[in-house]
Structures are given as C-alpha cells and as structure tokens.
Amino acid sequence: MKRLLVGSLLLALAVAAMYGYVVTRRDRMHREQLARGEAALAHDNTVAAVEAFSGAITLKPNAMIGYLRRGETYRKRGDLEEALRDLRRASELDPTATRPLEELGDVNLALTPPLGPRYGRAAALYRDYVRLDPASPRVLYKLAFASYNDGHRAEAIEVLKNAVAQDDHFAEGFYLLGLCLRDAQRLNEARAALERAIRIEPAMLHAREELADLFGALGRTEDRLSQLKALSALNPGASREVALGLAFARAGQPERAVLTLGYAAEHYPDDRYAYVALGRVWLELAPTRADALSKALTALEGAVGTDDSSEAMMLFGRALLMTRDDDSAERMLQDATHKEPVDPLAFYYLAEAAERLDHWDVARQALLDYQALHGAEDDARRRVAQSLRLGDLSLKLDDAASAVRYYQLVAADTDGDPGMLARLADAQWRAGETGAARATVDRALEKEPRNPQLLALRRRLGPVTSPPSDRSDPATRHQGN
Predict the structure, then answer these.
(1) For residues 172 and 149, what is the distance between their CA atoms, to the nearest angstrom?
(2) CB–CB of 141/149 below 8 Å?
(3) 3-state SS string over 262-319?
(4) Half-sphere exposure (CA, 13 Å, Cβ side) for 261?
(5) Taking the alpha carbons of 470, 471, 472, 474 in that order, is the dihedral positive or negative?
(6) Angular region, 399: left φ>0, alpha ψ -120 to 50, beta rest
(7) Per-residue model confidence (pLDDT) at position 16
(8) What is the pLDDT of residue 467?
(9) In the prediction, which pLDDT does 60 show?
(10) Residue 311 needs a FRET pair 20 to 30 A away by CA distance; which of 51, 73, 171, 208 works?
(11) How far apart are CA 198 and CA 195, in angstroms?
(12) pLDDT along the chain (481 residues), means of 10
C-alpha cells in the first residue's frame, strides 16, 4: 500500500514537473517570439514582425499582448481592417487595458472612405479610455477631435477645457479649443484660446493662420496684419507675401500692398500668383491713380503668360474693358469662363463687354451664369440692378415674356415704383398681356395720377372692352322661351 502511495506521489510530481517544464518553455518561447517581433519592428521589417507576433499568439492565444502588438504592426503598414480585428480581440481579452482602446480609436480615425473615418466610433472608444483613466490630456484631445468632427461641438469644448486644465501648456489643445469656440460663434473666447496656443508655441503656424482669419471676422485689421507679418517671418514664401500684400490692400494701405506684392513677384519669380495679385491691386487703384491702369496691364499681361487661371484672365479682361478695348476684353473674358475653377466675376464682366458690343444674347446668358454661380444678391440695390439689366436685355432680344418676369422682380424689390411699373406694363403689352398691362398701369396711376409716361401708356392700351350684354345678343334674349 505504501509502495502504491509513493508511486502515485512520484507520478504526480513527475506530471507536475513535466507541466511546469512545458509551461515554462511555452512562456519562454512566447517571450522570444515577442522579442523577435520587436526586433523586426526596430528594423522596420513589418512582415517579419507580423510573423513573430503571430507565433506568439499561437503559443498563448489568450494573452492580450500578442494581439495588441500584431494589431499595432498591421496599423503601421496600413492594413487597417486587420488591425481592427486584432485590436478588438486584445480589448476583449483585457477590458481594463487602455492601450487597445486608444489604438482602436486611432485606427477608426485613420480609416479612409468608404470605410471611414468613423468619428462616432472613435469617440466612443476614447470615452471608454477616459472612464478608465480620466487623467490623460492626450486622449482627451483625441476624444474632442473625434467629437468635433462627429458634430458634437459642445462635448468637444467641455472635453478640451478639461484637457487644458490638466495641462496648461498643451498648445494643440488650446488650438482645437479655439476652432470649436469659433464654430460656436463664441469669437472672443476663441481668440483667447488661439492667443494662448501661440504664447505656448509661437511657431504654431496653423494657430496664427486661424487667429488672423478670426481677427478679420472681428474687424481687427491691425491685429490681423500683425499675425500675417509674423507668418511671413516664420515661414517665408510667396504665398505668405501675397496674403500679406492683399491684406494691406483690403486694409486701405495700397502703397504697402504694392511694395509687398512687388517684393513677392521679384523674389519668387516661379510663383505665378504674385503677378495676379499685384495686377488686382493696381486695378483697384486705377480710378484714383493715373498710372495704375498701365501698371495693372503690365502685371496682368505677365500673369496671363504664366498663369492661365480664370482669375488671371478675368482681371486682364476687366483691365482691357477699362481701356475700352471691348473686342479683346470679350475674347479674354470668354476664355476666362472656360477655365476651371471658373471665377464667377468672369461672367459678370463678360456681360458688360458683350453689352457694349451689342451682343445681347451673350450678355444675358453671361449674367444668368453669373447669378447661378454667385447666388442670390443680399444687397437689394444690386439685386434690382441685375434684374433690371436682364429685363432690358430680354426686350432687346424680343423676349418680352422674360422681360416681364425680371421687371416683376424689380417691382417687388422697389415697392411698386411707378416708373418701374410703367416699364413692366410696357413689357406686358409687348408680351400680349394687355389686361395685365392695364392693371399694372392703373396700380401705378394710383401713386402718380399725373405721370405723363403712365397716361400715355394708358391711352395706348385703350379702354377696357365690356363683355356683350343680353340685349345685344339675340340668342341670349330668346334663351328659355
């Protein structure tokens, strides 16, 4: 009996020793596979790394680390769907681990159409992370970014306030907070956030760009110019100089605009837009400076030689219009309307050139194209002028029905101005709408009963013809007898 007991004990010890050996060996091999994967990654060999991490998963399929590292490797080489699969498994194996949650969120943000980016899913994963570890400004920033892009601006603002409260030197956090506040129309708070970002990181170009735009929206011209100057100093280049030069022009400082844009054109000759911008500024100065138009033509002629954009051609065509070279202007502006992306003003000035040349059909179509691209005019006076112009062009094309439609728009915008009603009535008469024309004239005469134009038009339209009475129609007299 004792021998049997001793034998059983020895057998159990042997089995335990064998099991321990197997487990120890498997753990060692697992660590070795992980180490091989890390070494492969250090040499940027993602294929060998995936193979090694796959070996680690085979050895210990319930260990989170293998799935995590293989998922991160898949992400590094751009295999995002495979990365999602492994990272989900890692999170399932250890729900308390924050790293898989962050990686999953990052992959959801990195997905490209049609799969992503999945901002809502990423935000949910970052929220799970924050519930486990609320003291991570980095992940709070990612949560805010995903929420902001998912349309949850209010949440993004609160999350970012938390992030910058934890790390008051978090420049990117203040920058994104500024964007969110700007979109919420909390402009002064946005300004403060962007200024804080720049104080922390003075070379943060995108923050300065946003702040410059914000100062423009707030009407703080000098502050906007200050930011544009700083951008030009921090990141010299043609685009910076051009932006600064155009800002000087909008600020009513044409001399500084010309100097800045001239510098850009001279020092960055390969930049095609510098001459376009310089020509634009000279063109705006043409009404007040005798030499401005010739300088504009020189700059724009050089610009069109290297920049065949719609904007460059539009400006050159406009300059030609100012010299009364209407034929050349029309040709240039027609070319401008065929360039993509088209500048809507090319159609506007083409209409003017065509109208001067009595090309009524070209002029009307150009105005209609301008309206289609530009959209409805907010300014009532400009809206009236365009509708009136379209009505006049329609009459010149013997299209009285269209003229009626445009004049009706003008009449509505001018509160039934008698002079405008007279034009409308005349168009209605030409379109064969005699009854409507009489009604329009009568409406106008109520406001100006002695207006000679209206009285003459009323006489031309003649009296209203009464419908025949029963007495005049024998067939009617004998009905029912």
Answers:
(1) 16
(2) no
(3) HHHHHHCCCCCHHHHHHHHHHHHHCCCCCCHHHHHHHHHHHHHHHCCCHHHHHHHHHH
(4) 29
(5) positive
(6) beta
(7) 53
(8) 46
(9) 93
(10) 208
(11) 5
(12) 60 56 76 94 95 94 95 95 96 96 97 91 98 97 98 97 98 98 97 98 97 96 96 95 95 94 91 92 93 94 83 96 97 96 97 98 98 90 95 97 96 89 93 93 90 87 57 43 36
Residues in Cβ contact with 109 at an 8 Å cutoff, skipping those fewer than 6 apart: 116, 117, 118, 119, 122, 142, 145, 146
- Give the C-alpha separation, 138 to 123, whole Å: 13
Residue 472, pLDDT score:
43
Whose structure tokens read 């193979």?
51
Closest CA relative to residue 36, chosen from 46, 24, 23? 46
Tokens matching residue 215? 């100062």
Q: What is the pTM of this model?
A: 0.73
Contact (CB, 8 A) for 163 and 130: no
Nearest to 312 by CA among 325, 322, 302, 321: 302
How far apart are the C-alpha atoms of 123 and 109, rounded to whole Å?
9
Q: How many helices (H) and strands (E) does the chain have?
A: 26, 0
CA 333 to chain centre: 26
pLDDT at 478: 42
d(Cα 300, Cα 280) in Å, to the nearest integer? 8
Domains and CATH numbers, the chain: 376-461 (1.25.40.10)
Residue 27's alpha-carbon distances to 22, 53, 178, 291, 331, in angstroms, are 8, 14, 50, 86, 80
Under 8 Å CB-to-CB from 78, ≥6 apart: which residues?
Answer: none
Q: What does the angle CA 207 – CA 213 – CA 216 come to, to the nearest 5 degrees?
A: 140
Torsion-angle region of 358 (φ positive above 0: left; ψ -120 to 50: alpha; else: beta): left
Tell me the CA distances in angstroms from 31 to 28, 38, 55, 329, one per residue in order: 5, 10, 10, 77
- Rounded CA-CA distance 303/289 in Å is 21
Alpha-carbon gap, residue 209 to 182, rounded angstroms? 13
Q: Give the helix ranges, DSSP H, for 341-397.
A: 344-356, 360-374, 380-396
Cβ atoms of residues 310 and 339 within 8 Å = yes
